[in-house]
Amino acid sequence: MSPQVGDEWLSLRDAAELLGMHPATVRLWADRNELPSRRTSGGHRRFRRTDIEARLRQETELKPNLASQMLIQNLLGRVRLDFTDGTFDKLTWHQHFDDAALNAYRVLGRRVLDLLLRGLNDPAHRENLRQEASQLGTEYGTIIRRSHVPVADAVRAFLYFRTIMDEAVLQLAEVRGAREQDIPWLESLYQIQAITNEILPSLIEAAVPPQETPS
Predict the structure, then answer these.
(1) Is the model's pLDDT at 149 over the cut of 80?
(2) Which residues form the Helix-turn-helix domain (predicted)?
(3) DSSP-assigned letter for residue 213
(4) Same domain, 19 and 90
(5) Which residues pair with 45 in a beta bridge?
(6) What is the pLDDT of residue 59?
(7) d(CA 146, CA 164)
């Protein structure tokens, strides 16, 4: 590889797209010196491609443990079942989401699952994960505001999926816990709650325009 390619510098947005992360997360990593960067004369961040690719390999090489694999499979199975058996169509809050909001929620939902997977396998970076969760909440709230979905229904949607997550852990603990005492199901539940607890406040703040905030 030529020196020019190895020393290619990327903007914050380009680096975030390459990593599959939100720019706010990449900025946080740079602020904490977890990801090398430099600033241009105009104050803009630049990231060397080789450093980004090294971080990407590091993220990819994290091997999910048995508990997280089973948990994510359980979550996906429950959500697919609710979609296919008509459960969602019976929920009043679901009727207020248009196609654009639902599609955006699906994209963000995959990012939430990725966040949970990393939280279960790499709890040492819990504070970073909470920051990402808060940013996801802001993105959820922005979608809600643009799609004119009532905030109460957005909260109901969040609590619905949050309940699915909690139930998935408790069901696995009940069914498999007796045979697999080494899997920390309750610790997994605490980690999920710690991450998802950051989403709802940010969602509400972004969904409610400042002039509508109760005094």
Answers:
(1) yes
(2) 9-59
(3) S
(4) no
(5) 39
(6) 61
(7) 26
Catalogue the long-range contacts made by 189-192 (C-beta closer than 8 Å, 24 or more residues apart): 191/119, 191/120, 191/123, 191/126, 192/116, 192/119, 192/120, 192/165, 192/166
Element (H, E) at 110: helix 99-121
- Report in angstroms the alpha-carbon separations of 12 from 50, 55, 161: 14, 14, 32
Residue 10's pLDDT is 92
CA atoms of 87 and 197, how far apart (whole Å): 25
Same domain for 20 and 73, yes or no, is no
Q: How far apart are CA 89 and CA 94, in angstroms?
A: 7
Q: Domain check: are 53 and 82 in the same one?
A: no
Tokens linked to 34: 């977890």
Range(s) of the domain holding residue 178? 66-212
In order of 60, 71, 85, 155, the CA distances from 114 in angstroms are 12, 12, 25, 21
**Residue where a domain terminates, one of 60, 86, 104:** 60
